[in-house]
């Protein structure tokens, strides 16, 4: 981070995951609303851990960029082996990526343990532990952005302050998902907050590191080896820039709400509730028919299963 690419690249990753989860949660809920239970991640038929593998790949790439590729000497340490002050933010950003890597690796490990103990999902305890690992990752993201070593008192600080609010929503809904796995509203808000995180990362990178897009009275200043947006405070330029950031966030939030509502409305016409074998809406806990359960068109118990045949990408339940 600290550059345009450093914000846009992780932002695009958050956008992709957010849209994927929005689509998957809405579809799962529309197909089986009575037995809906939210998963933390969605397997893909033919590449079960594709989502988690992409998270790991993105996290590893981010860590390498922060600690190996980005620094001028291609390593983040000083000549005496200590961490210089201008590289502290590299370690902070890399630590956020490490937390996401730990979550994704833990989810794969727990899924493997579930498969070893049961012939087929669901694996409720593993789902809960994976969700707690995700919550720990978002908690670290919130802490490190809140206690960032970089100077965030100016317009960049306003972007990060609003980002912390979005991360806090993601963290809260992830924790709530452990206690209320059947709540579609919790899953919907969590997915939307992941999408908004990505959008805000991209906006931050483009607006702060494109000189032509900086507010009036603000310029890019090269400090401690990287560019920082600085605004004059004597003529009100800083206050005006912060107000513009607030407006921008408000517009992106409204656009996210419109997108979620439009997607839900469109998918309501595409996916109808599947016939239920249990008239009382009780969850089918005895579904233990082996690996073929990942290939049937159903959305039972514990989390998401493979859904209907009309999807461009078939997904199964973790």
From TrEMBL:
Segments for region (Disordered): 274-318
This protein's GO CC annotations: membrane
Endpoints of the signal sequence: none
Coiled coil: none
Membrane topology designation: Multi-pass membrane protein
Pfam families: DUF716 (PF04819)
Record keyword Transcription present: no
Protein name from the UniProt record: Uncharacterized protein
